[in-house]
Design goal:
The complex is a heterodimer of chains A (about 400) and B (about 270). Chain A is an alpha+beta fold. Chain A is built from ten helices and eleven strands. Chain A folds into three domains: about 10-125, Orthogonal Bundle (Butyryl-Coa Dehydrogenase, subunit A, domain 1), CATH 1.10.540; about 130-230, Beta Barrel (Butyryl-CoA Dehydrogenase, subunit A, domain 2), CATH 2.40.110.10; about 235-380, Butyryl-CoA Dehydrogenase, subunit A, domain 3. Chain B has helices spanning about 35-50, 70-80, 100-110, 130-140, 195-200, 250-260; strands at about 1-5, 10, 35, 60-65, 85-90, 115-120, 145-150, 160-165, 170-175, 180, 205-210. In chain B, strand 7 and strand 8 form a beta hairpin. Classes of the chains: A alpha+beta (about 400), B alpha/beta (about 270).
């Protein structure tokens, strides 16, 4: 019997349907041909590779798990595989797609009016309209219930004041799904670029997600009509359900980062000779590689079962928390170890682990920090009592 | 206008090819198959012709001839944007040579009124490049090979094709119906789209077997084919490199001596 594939040690791909494999192959090819040749340079120069957007849209990746509205209506495993392949390229590319899909198209589809869906979703699928998601604020992300941004009803309009921070796609977005406190609780608004009082500014000097736009949003007496409010979103459950979608994609994405690091690492340790033998023939290296493969294999099985639960409508939000916590931690540890095994060369942008490692420092923080996810799982074990 | 694009399902260019122990062919186990890259140019050109010339009211059909798994090549073509797909599918087609396959395809499309056929210049599996010209011959149509640019006549009854030849470019005017084989550089093939891929998965393919096309087993037997694959053998393993040792000046002398006297390369 042949030796197992190091990147998919338990042949998890064998558990996918033909459709799922076809979707994965398509995105694998796109990443190999279009993203990998430019991504290191984009990261180095702090540049979001916008030139990838038209092809991402033409392939139908945006809104791919929505039925209707010119979208593909894929299942959640397909969506996960797309995230996995894009993040094998870079977390920044996956982040762009996550935000457009899970944080913008999803809430419009789930909480919007039919008119809002018709107006925005087909154009968002074609990337004619880019979205961003404004929930996190400068004074803390893990406790969104205490948000300071508020909206006051004035006649038929809402007047929004406040600021949002760490907003992916902020300055390139045509619409911002903005969450604000009102007298009736948290509500979601579609704020269009160019609305007086709404501005966005990029956050610079990042060491992470450099191939991604990260921004601050400002609302200074920003007036939007009630028709821009998401009518079905009541309370914090609205934005939190969006985060559950995005976190689900991250669960898969981290596998992509880890396999990219393993790939780089395997090639290096096999050709690098030290003390008269290839690095790969030493116990230290073999144990570390085996550990990487063990953790990637675990992560793959976890992601697939999570996807199957989601497709069956049986996914609890704590399932996502456990997987996001496990898989991103796995990705970050694999990337750091890969960086180390590459020796001095591992500190340059020429080899991908340091880039993935730096990206994953964001990924482990955003969409619910690792600690918050531990506590979300803990809450389910302790009579539903939140310790945060 | 009716356009046909020929497609073939071939091992991916980076696949590690293993030969079956009995030398009868390559072992497909573990090998990923894809739409032949030159066929991608053909499909792309067919779709572009339709998109760029709405006045021509073009309809694009993709066709492949091969076992059941080859349907994937057609799904890819549909996901890129072809309107229809025809699968000539029969185990009896598995061993036939290019000329016989051209006869099969010619019969399958005889009554369908195609105006132009785009084919790949070559398939990257067996690298023969015979099917396009052979099909043109069977249909008694003109054929332009390895095309890198196409300009359509205003009435869509003719076209001008450009092809690279040794040290120059040849410009060929051709009246339709005609068959063109596509060379790298003609276009850049698009990625399939997910919504179209999902639709293609559900769309029934038109599948025709040997009996439906009126071919007897004898007509498709190896003895009826003009050529046949003799045997497959892996290339001989590369001999190990030789290390020379010594001072640079001495090494250079040694190397020149080896290249001249042993390898007879200089």
């Amino acid at each position: 019997m042949e030796s197992p594939n190091p990147f998919d040690f338990y042949d998890v791909r064998g558990l996918f349907s033909d459709d799922e494999r076809a979707v994965q192959d398509m995105v694998t090819r796109f990443v190999d041909e279009q993203a990998l040749p430019i991504i290191a340079d984009a990261f180095e120069h702090d540049r979001f590779p916008k030139e990838l957007i038209p092809t991402i849209a033409e392939m139908g990746l945006l809104g791919c798990n929505i039925e209707g509205y010119d979208c593909a209506g894929l299942n959640n495993v397909c969506y996960g595989l797309i995230c996995q392949e894009l993040e094998r390229g870079d977390s920044g590319i996956r982040s762009f797609m996550s935000v457009q899909n899970s944080l913008c198209m999803f809430p419009i589809h789930r909480y919007g009016s039919e008119e809002q869906r018709q107006r925005w979703l087909p154009r968002m699928a074609k990337a004619q309209v880019i979205g961003c998601f404004g929930l996190t604020e400068p004074d803390g992300g893990s406790d969104p219930g205490t948000m300071k941004t508020h909206a006051k009803k004035q006649g038929g309009d809402w007047v929004i004041n406040g600021a949002k921070m760490w907003i992916t796609n902020g300055t390139i977005a045509d619409i911002a799904i903005t969450w604000a406190m009102t007298d009736e609780g948290v509500r979601g608004f579609i704020v269009e670029k160019g609305t007086p009082g709404y501005t966005a500014r990029d956050i610079k000097r990042k060491f992470s997600l450099r191939a991604s736009v990260t921004s601050e949003l400002f609302f200074d007496n920003c007036r939007v009509p009630d028709s821009n409010r998401l009518p079905e979103a009541h309370g914090l459950a609205g934005p939190l359900s969006c985060l559950t979608q995005a976190r689900y994609g991250i669960v898969w994405g981290a596998i992509g980062s880890a396999t990219a690091c393993l790939d780089e690492c395997l090639r290096f340790v096999k050709q690098r000779t030290l003390f008269g033998r290839p690095l790969s023939h030493t116990q230290t290296i073999q144990r570390r590689l085996a550990n990487m493969v063990r953790r990637i294999t675990n992560a793959r099985l976890l992601a697939l079962q999570l996807g199957r639960l989601k497709d069956a409508g049986r996914m609890h939000h704590s399932h996502v928390s456990l997987a996001k916590w496990n898989n991103v931690r796995m990705g970050l540890d694999v990337a750091r170890d890969a960086r180390d095994m590459l020796g001095a060369g591992g500190i340059t942008v020429e080899q991908c682990p340091i880039r993935h490692m730096l990206n994953l420092e964001s990924v482990i923080t955003y969409e619910g920090t690792e600690t918050i996810h531990e506590l979300i799982v803990g809450r389910e074990l302790c009579d539903g009592v939140a310790a945060f | 206008m009716k356009i046909l694009a020929l497609t073939k399902y071939v091992p991916e260019s980076t696949a590690v090819i293993k030969v079956k122990p009995d030398g009868s062919g390559i072992d497909p186990a573990g090998v990923k198959f894809v739409l032949n890259p030159f066929c991608e140019f053909a499909v792309e050109e067919a779709i572009r012709t339709k998109e760029k010339n709405p006045a021509a009211k073009a309809e694009v059909t993709a066709l492949t001839c091969g076992p059941a798994a080859c349907a994937e090549a057609l799904r890819t073509a549909l996901a890129m944007g072809t309107d229809h797909a025809i699968h000539l599918c029969d185990n009896a087609f598995a061993g036939i040579d290019e000329l016989t396959m051209a006869r099969v395809i010619a019969r399958a499309i005889a009554q369908r009124g195609f105006d132009v056929i785009f084919a790949g210049k070559v398939a990257i599996d067996y690298d023969s490049g015979q099917l396009g010209p052979a099909l043109a011959e069977c249909l008694d149509w003109p054929h332009v090979g390895a095309v890198t640019a196409i300009e359509w006549g205003a009435d869509f009854k003719s076209l001008t094709a450009r092809r690279r030849i040794e040290g120059a470019e040849e410009v060929v005017e051709v009246k339709l119906p005609a068959l063109l084989t596509c060379e790298k550089g003609l276009n850049e093939a698009r990625y399939p789209s997910l919504p179209k891929l999902m639709k293609a998965k559900k769309a029934p393919l038109e599948t025709l077997d040997a009996a439906a096309l009126g071919f007897s087993a004898a007509e498709l037997s190896p003895t009826a084919c003009a050529t046949r694959m003799g045997e497959f053998a892996p290339p001989p393993p590369r001999p190990p490199g030789r290390m020379l040792e010594g001072e640079p000046a001495e090494l250079a002398k040694q190397l020149v001596k080896i290249l001249r006297e042993e390898e007879k390369l200089i």
